[in-house]
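#lab-general

N.A. 3:47 PM
ok so I finally got the sequence cleaned up, no stray characters, all 481 residues accounted for. can someone with queue access submit it? mine expired

B.Y. 3:52 PM
send it over

N.A. 3:53 PM
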Amino acid sequence: MKMIGMFIIILFTLSLPFADGWEKTYGIQDWSFECAKAVFELGDSCYIVGGFTEGVGPTSSYFLWLRKNGDTLWTKIDTNTLPCYIIPLADTGYATLGYTVYDDIADSYSVGIMIYDNYGNLMNEKILGGENCFFWFKFSQTSDGGLILPGLCDYRQIDTLGYHFYESKIYIVRINDTGDTLWTQKFDYGGLGYDYGVDALQTSDGGFFIVANVNCGIRELERSDIWLLRLNPFGDTLWTRVYDSGSFDFAHDAVFTQDSGLIIAGSHIMRVDSIGNLLWRRGYDFGVPGGYDSRSAIITTSDGNYLAAGTIDDYSAFLKINGDGDTLWTRTFGGIIHWSCFEDVKQTSDGGYIAVGQFNSPEPDSYDVFVVKTDSLGEVSWISEPNIKPQDINISAYPNPFNSETRISISVPYDDHIVVNIYDISGNIVKNLYDGNIESGIHNFKWNGIDGSGNIVSSGIYFVKINTSTKEFQTKIVLTK
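B.Y. 4:20 PM
back already:
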């Protein structure tokens, strides 16, 4: 068995100001490749982010502990393990799932379950080997403290019909709270392409819903379906359902509904009842006709609705819907000259949301961990541009005029206390974007045409006014619809 190497990077950072949300990127070095796959909140103290990096030697697991304002407490890298998912455990601590490097002698990969305490100390490790198994998808803790792991096995490449594609079987592993395997199950949907489980949810009777993608990896043949399996507590199949919209369908995540059904997110968002009957299926393009969009994660929100996080073209995106699939609101992040995506989202204790994924900066060409913290409406009002020291105070807005969102850039040459407000043409405060201490540098604030009460404002002329400890500055912006 290969041992898993580990080292810790301790980062000491200054606490930066924040309002009701922030966007930040985290990378090991320029030209490196990092991506976050999962996030959860650890009490009132911090967020734990899990993903992978290629910035230090081989691809390795990458973890960050972040303060509530996004400052880094410390990071950890586990070498010799590849992309993983991370979940909090009911008895404190967290579990990660990844696979080790290829073993030439065994001609297979080994899957690793690592249990850590909340300080990042490795408490337990279990290697599940053989059969070319992969488990880089979502997994969950069961009611008895064990884990249910969806993935794939018998992975191989096949050349047929003039195409190169991959073949595999769905592979489900059930382990107990000490890491011992209780049962395994393979499911072969048949046909071309590879089949794999992406999510597993335990039902009230101790059984499981398994969400899987089947006949994937052969986009040229335009054939891919979503497969839902209902298992009893011992892994035996009770029933299966197949969902095919006639296009390249795939799932990434699922969440229970109040009536014990599921909402499944991926290429589409769809709702099924407790016995798998399709209630509705919808596609959402975020107002970009023909744009590529995908939902990587979906959660139930505290108000009984649902929030999906994913990608639309070059942007990371939020989509909030009700139980009928109707859109309540959408938000986009990143984009313009950058590419970004979301892989996971959670609701935070303050009613807002935190989402993680990947962010690409063209100069230098690096891929960093992307973390966005928003308020309950999905808004971010403050973004930091580090290590830039302007000579004078300056305000600019782009785009201007705008019809959905503008980014307001403020250059501050010295540490100060500032207040940033949006005013209408009559001098009434429409929205407070920031009120607090700020470091010297360039700071960016977003405004999407929503006032302080969450209402959409009308088209017209507005003013961005910045008050420092000694001066007042303002600029005009124009909202068009």
